Amino acid sequence: MKTLLTSTALVAALALPAAAQDYTPDPNATPGGMITVTYKDDVATLDPAIGYDWQNWSMIKSLFDGLMDYVPGTTELRPGLAESYEISDDGKTFTFTLRPGVKFHNGREMTAEDVKYSLDRVTTPATQSPGAGFFASIAGFDAISDGSADTLSGVEVVEPATVRITLSRPDATFLHVMALNFASIVPKEAVDEYGSDFGKHPVGTGAFKLDEWTIGQRLVFAKNEDFWREGVPYLDGVTFEVGQEPIVALLRLQQGEVDVPGDGIPPAKFQEVMGDPAQAARVVEGGQLHTGYITLNVGIAPLDKLEVREAINMAINKERITQIINGRAVPATQPLPPSMPGYTEGYDGYAYDPEGAKAKLAEAGLADGFTTELYVMNTDPNPRIAQAIQQDLKAIGVTAEIRSLAQANVIEAGGAGQAPMIWSGGMAWIADFPDPSNFYGPILGCAGAGEGGWNWSKFCDEGIDAMATEADSMTDPSAPERLKMWSDVYMKVMEEAPWVPVFNEQRYTMKSARMGGDDSLYVDPVSIPINYDYVYVTE
Protein backbone atom coordinates (compact mmCIF):
# COMPACT_ATOMS: atom_id res chain seq x y z
CA MET A 1 0.00 0.00 0.00
CA LYS A 2 1.16 3.52 -0.74
CA THR A 3 0.35 5.70 2.27
CA LEU A 4 0.02 9.47 1.89
CA LEU A 5 -0.56 11.87 4.74
CA THR A 6 -1.50 15.53 4.89
CA SER A 7 2.09 16.70 5.31
CA THR A 8 3.64 14.42 2.71
CA ALA A 9 4.06 14.58 -1.04
CA LEU A 10 0.65 13.68 -2.35
CA VAL A 11 0.93 13.28 -6.02
CA ALA A 12 4.12 11.55 -7.05
CA ALA A 13 2.03 8.88 -8.72
CA LEU A 14 0.29 11.60 -10.71
CA ALA A 15 3.52 13.17 -11.95
CA LEU A 16 2.62 16.48 -10.31
CA PRO A 17 4.82 18.66 -8.05
CA ALA A 18 5.59 16.80 -4.85
CA ALA A 19 5.21 19.69 -2.42
CA ALA A 20 1.52 19.79 -1.60
CA GLN A 21 1.41 21.07 1.97
CA ASP A 22 -1.53 22.14 4.09
CA TYR A 23 -2.36 25.82 4.04
CA THR A 24 -0.38 28.39 6.03
CA PRO A 25 -2.47 31.49 6.75
CA ASP A 26 -1.38 34.65 4.94
CA PRO A 27 0.44 36.85 7.50
CA ASN A 28 -0.74 39.97 5.66
CA ALA A 29 -4.42 39.08 5.89
CA THR A 30 -6.73 40.98 8.22
CA PRO A 31 -9.83 38.95 9.07
CA GLY A 32 -13.25 40.50 8.58
CA GLY A 33 -15.21 42.52 6.07
CA MET A 34 -17.68 41.80 3.28
CA ILE A 35 -17.09 41.99 -0.45
CA THR A 36 -19.52 42.54 -3.32
CA VAL A 37 -19.42 40.47 -6.52
CA THR A 38 -21.75 41.09 -9.47
CA TYR A 39 -23.25 38.87 -12.17
CA LYS A 40 -25.65 39.59 -15.01
CA ASP A 41 -27.66 36.39 -14.58
CA ASP A 42 -29.12 34.75 -11.52
CA VAL A 43 -27.68 31.49 -10.25
CA ALA A 44 -29.44 28.32 -11.37
CA THR A 45 -28.42 26.01 -8.51
CA LEU A 46 -25.92 25.56 -5.69
CA ASP A 47 -26.28 21.77 -5.65
CA PRO A 48 -22.75 20.37 -6.15
CA ALA A 49 -24.10 17.33 -8.00
CA ILE A 50 -25.85 19.57 -10.55
CA GLY A 51 -24.08 22.94 -10.82
CA TYR A 52 -21.54 23.07 -13.62
CA ASP A 53 -21.08 26.56 -14.98
CA TRP A 54 -18.69 29.47 -14.74
CA GLN A 55 -20.97 31.39 -12.42
CA ASN A 56 -21.74 28.86 -9.69
CA TRP A 57 -18.54 26.77 -9.70
CA SER A 58 -16.55 28.87 -7.20
CA MET A 59 -19.67 29.52 -5.12
CA ILE A 60 -20.27 25.79 -4.74
CA LYS A 61 -16.61 25.20 -3.96
CA SER A 62 -16.87 27.66 -1.06
CA LEU A 63 -19.98 25.94 0.34
CA PHE A 64 -18.84 22.33 0.01
CA ASP A 65 -15.73 20.16 0.28
CA GLY A 66 -14.60 16.84 -1.14
CA LEU A 67 -12.14 14.23 0.07
CA MET A 68 -9.43 15.90 -2.01
CA ASP A 69 -8.63 19.56 -2.62
CA TYR A 70 -6.03 21.81 -4.26
CA VAL A 71 -3.36 24.15 -2.96
CA PRO A 72 -4.93 27.62 -3.43
CA GLY A 73 -4.27 29.17 -6.82
CA THR A 74 -2.77 25.97 -8.26
CA THR A 75 -3.66 22.56 -9.68
CA GLU A 76 -1.55 20.84 -7.01
CA LEU A 77 -3.52 18.20 -5.12
CA ARG A 78 -3.75 18.03 -1.34
CA PRO A 79 -6.14 16.25 1.06
CA GLY A 80 -9.47 17.91 1.78
CA LEU A 81 -11.95 16.17 4.05
CA ALA A 82 -9.62 13.18 3.97
CA GLU A 83 -6.87 13.49 6.53
CA SER A 84 -4.88 10.78 4.76
CA TYR A 85 -5.30 7.99 2.24
CA GLU A 86 -3.71 4.79 1.03
CA ILE A 87 -3.50 3.44 -2.52
CA SER A 88 -3.13 -0.27 -3.23
CA ASP A 89 -0.18 -1.41 -5.31
CA ASP A 90 -2.43 -2.20 -8.28
CA GLY A 91 -3.84 1.34 -8.19
CA LYS A 92 -7.42 0.15 -7.82
CA THR A 93 -8.20 0.56 -4.11
CA PHE A 94 -8.18 3.89 -2.26
CA THR A 95 -8.73 3.94 1.51
CA PHE A 96 -9.50 7.39 2.91
CA THR A 97 -9.29 8.33 6.59
CA LEU A 98 -11.53 11.30 7.34
CA ARG A 99 -10.59 14.36 9.36
CA PRO A 100 -12.13 14.23 12.84
CA GLY A 101 -14.65 16.80 13.98
CA VAL A 102 -15.71 18.16 10.57
CA LYS A 103 -19.26 19.53 10.80
CA PHE A 104 -21.91 20.27 8.23
CA HIS A 105 -23.51 23.71 8.31
CA ASN A 106 -26.44 22.12 10.18
CA GLY A 107 -24.08 21.22 13.04
CA ARG A 108 -23.91 17.45 12.48
CA GLU A 109 -20.52 15.76 12.28
CA MET A 110 -19.61 14.26 8.91
CA THR A 111 -18.95 10.49 8.68
CA ALA A 112 -18.01 7.89 6.10
CA GLU A 113 -21.73 7.19 5.60
CA ASP A 114 -22.05 10.71 4.18
CA VAL A 115 -19.24 10.00 1.73
CA LYS A 116 -20.96 6.88 0.47
CA TYR A 117 -24.34 8.59 0.26
CA SER A 118 -22.89 11.52 -1.70
CA LEU A 119 -21.13 9.30 -4.26
CA ASP A 120 -24.24 7.15 -4.67
CA ARG A 121 -26.33 10.28 -5.14
CA VAL A 122 -24.15 11.89 -7.82
CA THR A 123 -24.04 8.68 -9.89
CA THR A 124 -27.68 7.60 -9.71
CA PRO A 125 -29.57 8.53 -12.91
CA ALA A 126 -32.39 10.19 -10.96
CA THR A 127 -30.01 12.98 -9.94
CA GLN A 128 -29.22 13.75 -13.59
CA SER A 129 -25.76 14.94 -12.65
CA PRO A 130 -23.70 16.24 -15.59
CA GLY A 131 -20.66 14.95 -13.69
CA ALA A 132 -21.78 11.34 -13.21
CA GLY A 133 -19.43 10.09 -15.92
CA PHE A 134 -16.39 11.24 -13.96
CA PHE A 135 -17.01 8.35 -11.55
CA ALA A 136 -17.21 5.63 -14.22
CA SER A 137 -14.10 3.83 -12.93
CA ILE A 138 -15.70 3.08 -9.52
CA ALA A 139 -16.81 -0.54 -9.23
CA GLY A 140 -20.57 -0.76 -9.60
CA PHE A 141 -20.91 2.37 -11.73
CA ASP A 142 -22.49 0.52 -14.66
CA ALA A 143 -25.04 -1.16 -12.38
CA ILE A 144 -26.14 2.08 -10.72
CA SER A 145 -26.24 3.78 -14.13
CA ASP A 146 -28.56 1.22 -15.70
CA GLY A 147 -30.79 1.04 -12.63
CA SER A 148 -29.94 -2.54 -11.66
CA ALA A 149 -28.43 -1.25 -8.39
CA ASP A 150 -29.14 1.74 -6.21
CA THR A 151 -25.71 1.99 -4.64
CA LEU A 152 -22.09 1.83 -5.76
CA SER A 153 -20.65 -1.55 -4.82
CA GLY A 154 -17.15 -0.07 -4.92
CA VAL A 155 -17.76 2.42 -2.10
CA GLU A 156 -17.58 0.76 1.31
CA VAL A 157 -17.90 2.24 4.80
CA VAL A 158 -15.15 0.51 6.80
CA GLU A 159 -15.82 2.43 10.01
CA PRO A 160 -17.24 5.88 10.81
CA ALA A 161 -14.01 7.65 9.85
CA THR A 162 -12.84 5.34 7.05
CA VAL A 163 -14.16 4.77 3.55
CA ARG A 164 -12.73 2.40 0.95
CA ILE A 165 -13.26 3.01 -2.76
CA THR A 166 -12.51 0.18 -5.17
CA LEU A 167 -12.17 0.84 -8.87
CA SER A 168 -13.04 -1.56 -11.67
CA ARG A 169 -9.83 -0.47 -13.43
CA PRO A 170 -6.89 1.78 -12.65
CA ASP A 171 -7.76 5.43 -13.22
CA ALA A 172 -4.96 7.97 -13.63
CA THR A 173 -7.36 10.83 -12.85
CA PHE A 174 -9.17 9.44 -9.81
CA LEU A 175 -7.69 11.71 -7.11
CA HIS A 176 -8.49 14.72 -9.27
CA VAL A 177 -12.06 13.44 -9.62
CA MET A 178 -12.35 13.30 -5.84
CA ALA A 179 -11.49 17.02 -5.75
CA LEU A 180 -14.27 18.01 -8.17
CA ASN A 181 -17.39 19.79 -6.94
CA PHE A 182 -19.35 16.71 -8.02
CA ALA A 183 -17.53 14.71 -5.32
CA SER A 184 -18.61 17.13 -2.58
CA ILE A 185 -19.96 15.54 0.59
CA VAL A 186 -23.58 16.39 1.44
CA PRO A 187 -25.82 15.38 4.37
CA LYS A 188 -28.66 13.01 3.43
CA GLU A 189 -31.13 14.60 5.84
CA ALA A 190 -30.79 17.99 4.16
CA VAL A 191 -31.27 16.51 0.69
CA ASP A 192 -34.30 14.58 1.97
CA GLU A 193 -35.75 17.72 3.54
CA TYR A 194 -35.44 19.96 0.49
CA GLY A 195 -35.60 17.42 -2.34
CA SER A 196 -35.20 19.08 -5.73
CA ASP A 197 -34.82 22.43 -3.93
CA PHE A 198 -31.59 21.37 -2.20
CA GLY A 199 -29.77 23.55 -4.73
CA LYS A 200 -31.58 26.56 -3.24
CA HIS A 201 -30.91 25.42 0.35
CA PRO A 202 -27.35 24.03 0.22
CA VAL A 203 -25.82 22.43 3.31
CA GLY A 204 -22.15 21.53 3.15
CA THR A 205 -18.94 21.66 5.17
CA GLY A 206 -17.39 24.59 3.31
CA ALA A 207 -15.78 27.85 4.42
CA PHE A 208 -19.03 29.74 3.81
CA LYS A 209 -22.70 28.96 4.24
CA LEU A 210 -25.71 30.41 2.46
CA ASP A 211 -27.24 33.15 4.59
CA GLU A 212 -29.74 34.68 2.13
CA TRP A 213 -30.94 34.14 -1.43
CA THR A 214 -33.38 36.65 -2.87
CA ILE A 215 -34.11 35.30 -6.32
CA GLY A 216 -33.22 37.78 -9.05
CA GLN A 217 -31.48 40.15 -6.64
CA ARG A 218 -28.69 38.72 -4.50
CA LEU A 219 -27.13 35.84 -2.64
CA VAL A 220 -25.31 36.39 0.64
CA PHE A 221 -22.70 33.96 1.96
CA ALA A 222 -21.68 34.12 5.62
CA LYS A 223 -18.45 32.86 7.15
CA ASN A 224 -18.66 29.35 8.57
CA GLU A 225 -17.37 29.86 12.10
CA ASP A 226 -16.95 26.08 12.49
CA PHE A 227 -14.90 25.61 9.32
CA TRP A 228 -12.47 22.74 9.74
CA ARG A 229 -9.44 24.45 8.18
CA GLU A 230 -7.92 26.79 10.76
CA GLY A 231 -7.37 30.46 9.92
CA VAL A 232 -9.71 30.78 6.95
CA PRO A 233 -11.85 32.17 5.51
CA TYR A 234 -10.73 35.71 6.18
CA LEU A 235 -13.90 37.41 4.98
CA ASP A 236 -17.04 37.69 7.09
CA GLY A 237 -19.03 37.10 3.94
CA VAL A 238 -19.65 37.67 0.25
CA THR A 239 -22.64 39.38 -1.37
CA PHE A 240 -23.37 38.30 -4.95
CA GLU A 241 -25.57 40.86 -6.71
CA VAL A 242 -27.32 39.43 -9.78
CA GLY A 243 -29.12 41.19 -12.62
CA GLN A 244 -26.17 43.57 -12.99
CA GLU A 245 -25.10 44.53 -16.53
CA PRO A 246 -21.29 44.09 -16.87
CA ILE A 247 -20.72 47.68 -18.03
CA VAL A 248 -22.64 49.00 -15.01
CA ALA A 249 -20.67 46.64 -12.76
CA LEU A 250 -17.41 48.07 -14.13
CA LEU A 251 -18.59 51.61 -13.45
CA ARG A 252 -19.53 50.66 -9.90
CA LEU A 253 -16.11 49.04 -9.40
CA GLN A 254 -14.50 52.30 -10.52
CA GLN A 255 -16.63 54.09 -7.91
CA GLY A 256 -15.66 51.65 -5.15
CA GLU A 257 -19.08 50.01 -4.87
CA VAL A 258 -18.09 46.60 -6.30
CA ASP A 259 -15.06 44.48 -5.51
CA VAL A 260 -15.12 41.93 -8.33
CA PRO A 261 -17.15 42.05 -11.58
CA GLY A 262 -17.99 38.36 -11.90
CA ASP A 263 -18.60 38.52 -15.66
CA GLY A 264 -15.15 40.02 -16.21
CA ILE A 265 -14.11 43.11 -18.12
CA PRO A 266 -16.72 43.98 -20.78
CA PRO A 267 -14.98 43.54 -24.16
CA ALA A 268 -16.25 46.94 -25.32
CA LYS A 269 -14.37 48.53 -22.40
CA PHE A 270 -11.22 46.38 -22.48
CA GLN A 271 -8.99 48.80 -24.41
CA GLU A 272 -10.17 51.72 -22.28
CA VAL A 273 -9.39 49.83 -19.06
CA MET A 274 -5.97 48.66 -20.23
CA GLY A 275 -5.11 52.17 -21.45
CA ASP A 276 -5.69 53.69 -18.01
CA PRO A 277 -2.76 52.91 -15.68
CA ALA A 278 -4.93 53.20 -12.56
CA GLN A 279 -7.47 50.70 -13.88
CA ALA A 280 -4.89 48.45 -15.54
CA ALA A 281 -3.20 48.06 -12.15
CA ARG A 282 -6.37 46.31 -10.92
CA VAL A 283 -6.47 43.85 -13.82
CA VAL A 284 -5.38 40.27 -13.13
CA GLU A 285 -4.33 38.14 -16.08
CA GLY A 286 -3.89 34.40 -16.00
CA GLY A 287 -3.44 31.49 -18.33
CA GLN A 288 -6.14 28.87 -18.54
CA LEU A 289 -6.79 25.51 -20.13
CA HIS A 290 -9.68 26.80 -22.22
CA THR A 291 -11.40 26.12 -25.52
CA GLY A 292 -14.37 28.02 -26.92
CA TYR A 293 -16.36 26.01 -29.45
CA ILE A 294 -19.59 25.59 -31.39
CA THR A 295 -21.46 22.35 -30.75
CA LEU A 296 -23.20 20.64 -33.68
CA ASN A 297 -26.01 18.38 -32.49
CA VAL A 298 -25.54 15.13 -34.43
CA GLY A 299 -29.08 14.06 -33.54
CA ILE A 300 -30.76 16.93 -35.40
CA ALA A 301 -30.95 16.95 -39.21
CA PRO A 302 -29.10 17.98 -41.26
CA LEU A 303 -26.30 18.16 -38.68
CA ASP A 304 -26.46 14.38 -38.56
CA LYS A 305 -24.55 14.40 -41.87
CA LEU A 306 -20.75 14.51 -41.59
CA GLU A 307 -20.42 16.64 -44.74
CA VAL A 308 -22.64 19.32 -43.19
CA ARG A 309 -20.58 19.41 -39.99
CA GLU A 310 -17.38 19.61 -42.03
CA ALA A 311 -18.87 22.47 -44.05
CA ILE A 312 -19.69 24.44 -40.92
CA ASN A 313 -16.14 23.90 -39.64
CA MET A 314 -14.78 25.26 -42.93
CA ALA A 315 -17.13 28.26 -42.91
CA ILE A 316 -16.02 29.85 -39.62
CA ASN A 317 -13.47 32.68 -39.76
CA LYS A 318 -11.77 32.13 -36.41
CA GLU A 319 -9.24 34.95 -36.84
CA ARG A 320 -12.06 37.48 -37.21
CA ILE A 321 -13.83 36.13 -34.11
CA THR A 322 -10.71 36.53 -31.96
CA GLN A 323 -10.67 40.22 -32.86
CA ILE A 324 -14.14 40.62 -31.32
CA ILE A 325 -12.51 39.89 -27.96
CA ASN A 326 -9.59 42.24 -28.61
CA GLY A 327 -7.22 39.48 -29.64
CA ARG A 328 -7.28 37.86 -26.19
CA ALA A 329 -7.23 34.39 -27.76
CA VAL A 330 -5.62 32.28 -30.45
CA PRO A 331 -7.60 30.30 -33.05
CA ALA A 332 -8.22 26.68 -32.02
CA THR A 333 -7.73 23.64 -34.23
CA GLN A 334 -8.87 20.87 -31.88
CA PRO A 335 -10.69 20.36 -28.56
CA LEU A 336 -7.53 20.45 -26.42
CA PRO A 337 -5.82 23.80 -25.76
CA PRO A 338 -2.14 24.02 -26.79
CA SER A 339 -0.77 23.88 -23.23
CA MET A 340 -2.64 20.67 -22.34
CA PRO A 341 -0.70 17.38 -22.40
CA GLY A 342 -1.92 15.31 -25.35
CA TYR A 343 -2.34 18.30 -27.67
CA THR A 344 -1.55 17.29 -31.26
CA GLU A 345 1.26 19.48 -32.55
CA GLY A 346 1.19 20.29 -36.25
CA TYR A 347 -2.52 19.57 -36.72
CA ASP A 348 -4.10 22.45 -38.64
CA GLY A 349 -7.73 21.42 -38.32
CA TYR A 350 -10.32 22.62 -40.83
CA ALA A 351 -9.02 25.59 -42.81
CA TYR A 352 -11.26 28.61 -43.38
CA ASP A 353 -12.57 27.82 -46.86
CA PRO A 354 -16.08 29.12 -47.74
CA GLU A 355 -15.96 27.73 -51.27
CA GLY A 356 -14.89 24.33 -50.00
CA ALA A 357 -17.72 24.52 -47.43
CA LYS A 358 -20.26 25.14 -50.21
CA ALA A 359 -18.93 22.10 -52.05
CA LYS A 360 -19.39 19.99 -48.91
CA LEU A 361 -23.01 21.14 -48.61
CA ALA A 362 -23.62 20.22 -52.23
CA GLU A 363 -22.08 16.82 -51.55
CA ALA A 364 -24.65 16.42 -48.74
CA GLY A 365 -27.47 17.29 -51.12
CA LEU A 366 -27.91 20.77 -49.62
CA ALA A 367 -26.53 23.02 -52.31
CA ASP A 368 -29.28 25.55 -51.51
CA GLY A 369 -28.36 25.53 -47.81
CA PHE A 370 -30.72 25.10 -44.86
CA THR A 371 -32.08 26.90 -41.80
CA THR A 372 -31.05 26.10 -38.23
CA GLU A 373 -30.78 27.70 -34.78
CA LEU A 374 -27.73 28.94 -32.91
CA TYR A 375 -28.09 29.24 -29.12
CA VAL A 376 -25.90 31.71 -27.25
CA MET A 377 -25.52 33.11 -23.75
CA ASN A 378 -26.81 36.70 -23.69
CA THR A 379 -23.79 38.34 -22.03
CA ASP A 380 -21.45 40.43 -24.22
CA PRO A 381 -19.43 39.58 -26.28
CA ASN A 382 -21.23 36.31 -26.93
CA PRO A 383 -24.19 37.72 -28.92
CA ARG A 384 -21.69 39.60 -31.13
CA ILE A 385 -19.68 36.42 -31.66
CA ALA A 386 -22.92 34.63 -32.55
CA GLN A 387 -23.64 37.32 -35.13
CA ALA A 388 -20.19 36.77 -36.67
CA ILE A 389 -20.88 33.03 -36.82
CA GLN A 390 -24.27 33.79 -38.36
CA GLN A 391 -22.62 35.92 -41.07
CA ASP A 392 -20.04 33.22 -41.84
CA LEU A 393 -22.77 30.62 -42.21
CA LYS A 394 -24.89 32.94 -44.35
CA ALA A 395 -21.95 33.19 -46.76
CA ILE A 396 -22.29 29.47 -47.53
CA GLY A 397 -26.09 29.50 -47.70
CA VAL A 398 -26.90 28.44 -44.13
CA THR A 399 -29.41 30.59 -42.23
CA ALA A 400 -28.80 30.42 -38.46
CA GLU A 401 -31.48 32.01 -36.31
CA ILE A 402 -29.91 33.26 -33.06
CA ARG A 403 -31.48 32.32 -29.74
CA SER A 404 -29.86 34.64 -27.17
CA LEU A 405 -30.78 33.45 -23.66
CA ALA A 406 -29.61 33.49 -20.06
CA GLN A 407 -26.83 31.03 -19.33
CA ALA A 408 -29.06 28.62 -17.41
CA ASN A 409 -31.53 28.42 -20.31
CA VAL A 410 -28.81 27.68 -22.86
CA ILE A 411 -27.42 24.96 -20.59
CA GLU A 412 -30.89 23.48 -20.15
CA ALA A 413 -31.54 23.42 -23.90
CA GLY A 414 -28.14 21.87 -24.55
CA GLY A 415 -28.60 19.17 -21.93
CA ALA A 416 -32.04 18.32 -23.27
CA GLY A 417 -30.71 18.00 -26.82
CA GLN A 418 -33.02 20.74 -28.11
CA ALA A 419 -30.34 23.08 -29.49
CA PRO A 420 -29.02 22.35 -33.01
CA MET A 421 -25.98 24.59 -32.46
CA ILE A 422 -24.56 26.30 -29.37
CA TRP A 423 -21.79 28.88 -29.15
CA SER A 424 -20.19 27.92 -25.84
CA GLY A 425 -18.87 31.37 -24.91
CA GLY A 426 -19.42 32.25 -21.26
CA MET A 427 -19.84 28.52 -20.67
CA ALA A 428 -16.81 27.38 -22.71
CA TRP A 429 -14.72 24.57 -21.38
CA ILE A 430 -12.00 25.33 -18.85
CA ALA A 431 -10.29 22.22 -17.53
CA ASP A 432 -11.57 20.90 -14.21
CA PHE A 433 -8.11 19.40 -13.77
CA PRO A 434 -4.94 19.40 -15.93
CA ASP A 435 -5.42 16.13 -17.80
CA PRO A 436 -6.52 15.52 -21.42
CA SER A 437 -9.31 13.20 -20.30
CA ASN A 438 -11.21 16.17 -18.88
CA PHE A 439 -11.94 17.56 -22.33
CA TYR A 440 -13.47 14.27 -23.43
CA GLY A 441 -15.73 12.47 -20.94
CA PRO A 442 -18.16 15.24 -19.92
CA ILE A 443 -18.34 17.13 -23.23
CA LEU A 444 -17.56 14.64 -26.02
CA GLY A 445 -17.98 11.16 -24.51
CA CYS A 446 -21.06 8.97 -24.40
CA ALA A 447 -21.44 9.51 -20.63
CA GLY A 448 -22.00 13.25 -21.16
CA ALA A 449 -24.48 12.79 -24.01
CA GLY A 450 -27.43 11.79 -21.83
CA GLU A 451 -30.26 13.97 -20.54
CA GLY A 452 -28.83 16.95 -18.69
CA GLY A 453 -25.25 16.23 -19.75
CA TRP A 454 -22.77 18.78 -21.07
CA ASN A 455 -22.09 16.89 -24.32
CA TRP A 456 -24.38 19.23 -26.23
CA SER A 457 -23.41 17.77 -29.61
CA LYS A 458 -24.92 14.47 -28.34
CA PHE A 459 -21.97 12.81 -30.06
CA CYS A 460 -21.33 9.23 -28.90
CA ASP A 461 -18.81 6.93 -30.56
CA GLU A 462 -18.32 3.72 -28.57
CA GLY A 463 -15.02 2.97 -30.32
CA ILE A 464 -13.55 6.33 -29.32
CA ASP A 465 -15.01 5.88 -25.84
CA ALA A 466 -13.15 2.57 -25.55
CA MET A 467 -9.88 4.27 -26.54
CA ALA A 468 -10.47 6.94 -23.91
CA THR A 469 -11.12 4.31 -21.25
CA GLU A 470 -7.94 2.46 -22.22
CA ALA A 471 -5.94 5.69 -21.94
CA ASP A 472 -7.29 6.41 -18.48
CA SER A 473 -6.66 2.85 -17.32
CA MET A 474 -2.92 3.53 -17.33
CA THR A 475 -1.60 4.36 -13.87
CA ASP A 476 0.98 6.92 -15.06
CA PRO A 477 -0.90 9.97 -16.35
CA SER A 478 2.16 11.42 -18.08
CA ALA A 479 3.24 8.22 -19.86
CA PRO A 480 4.07 9.04 -23.52
CA GLU A 481 1.93 6.17 -24.77
CA ARG A 482 -1.04 7.50 -22.78
CA LEU A 483 -0.68 11.02 -24.15
CA LYS A 484 -0.28 9.63 -27.69
CA MET A 485 -3.51 7.69 -27.20
CA TRP A 486 -5.31 10.84 -26.08
CA SER A 487 -3.97 12.65 -29.13
CA ASP A 488 -5.43 9.88 -31.28
CA VAL A 489 -8.78 10.18 -29.49
CA TYR A 490 -9.10 13.87 -30.33
CA MET A 491 -7.96 13.38 -33.91
CA LYS A 492 -10.72 10.78 -34.37
CA VAL A 493 -13.19 13.22 -32.81
CA MET A 494 -12.15 15.87 -35.32
CA GLU A 495 -12.72 13.39 -38.16
CA GLU A 496 -16.36 13.22 -37.04
CA ALA A 497 -16.57 17.02 -36.54
CA PRO A 498 -19.17 17.28 -33.72
CA TRP A 499 -17.60 20.63 -32.78
CA VAL A 500 -16.12 23.69 -34.35
CA PRO A 501 -13.18 24.54 -32.04
CA VAL A 502 -12.98 28.35 -32.32
CA PHE A 503 -10.40 29.80 -29.94
CA ASN A 504 -8.29 29.32 -26.81
CA GLU A 505 -8.75 32.33 -24.56
CA GLN A 506 -6.52 34.03 -22.01
CA ARG A 507 -8.25 35.03 -18.78
CA TYR A 508 -8.65 38.57 -17.43
CA THR A 509 -10.51 39.85 -14.39
CA MET A 510 -10.47 42.92 -12.15
CA LYS A 511 -10.52 43.58 -8.44
CA SER A 512 -11.09 46.67 -6.34
CA ALA A 513 -8.19 48.51 -4.76
CA ARG A 514 -9.04 47.09 -1.34
CA MET A 515 -8.86 43.42 -2.32
CA GLY A 516 -5.91 41.46 -0.95
CA GLY A 517 -4.42 38.03 -1.54
CA ASP A 518 -2.20 36.62 -4.26
CA ASP A 519 -3.28 37.37 -7.82
CA SER A 520 -3.46 33.63 -8.53
CA LEU A 521 -6.55 33.46 -6.30
CA TYR A 522 -8.45 35.72 -8.72
CA VAL A 523 -7.68 33.51 -11.72
CA ASP A 524 -7.68 30.29 -9.71
CA PRO A 525 -7.48 27.36 -12.15
CA VAL A 526 -9.75 25.22 -9.95
CA SER A 527 -12.04 27.61 -8.03
CA ILE A 528 -13.07 29.30 -11.26
CA PRO A 529 -13.26 32.25 -11.32
CA ILE A 530 -12.20 33.19 -7.76
CA ASN A 531 -11.08 31.36 -4.64
CA TYR A 532 -13.20 33.18 -2.05
CA ASP A 533 -11.84 31.12 0.84
CA TYR A 534 -8.43 32.84 0.75
CA VAL A 535 -8.96 36.42 -0.48
CA TYR A 536 -9.35 39.29 1.98
CA VAL A 537 -9.86 43.05 2.20
CA THR A 538 -7.20 45.52 3.30
CA GLU A 539 -9.53 48.20 4.63
Automatic annotation (TrEMBL):
Pfam families, alphabetized: SBP_bac_5
A Gene Ontology biological process term: dipeptide transport
Keywords from the UniProt entry: Periplasm, Signal, Transport
Record domain Solute-binding protein family: where: 76-450
Any one Gene Ontology cellular component term annotated for this protein: ATP-binding cassette (ABC) transporter complex
Position of the signal peptide: 1-20
Subcellular location: Periplasm
Gene Ontology terms for molecular function: peptide transmembrane transporter activity
InterPro entries per the UniProt record, alphabetical: Peptide/Ni-bd, SBP_5, SBP_5_dom
Domain of life: Bacteria
Presence of keyword Transport: yes
Membership in a protein family: Belongs to the bacterial solute-binding protein 5 family.
PANTHER family xrefs: GLUTATHIONE-BINDING PROTEIN GSIB, PERIPLASMIC BINDING COMPONENT OF ABC TRANSPORTER
Function (record text): Part of the ABC transporter complex GsiABCD involved in glutathione import. Binds glutathione.
The protein's name: Glutathione-binding protein GsiB
Organism phylogeny: Bacteria, Pseudomonadati, Pseudomonadota, Alphaproteobacteria, Rhodobacterales
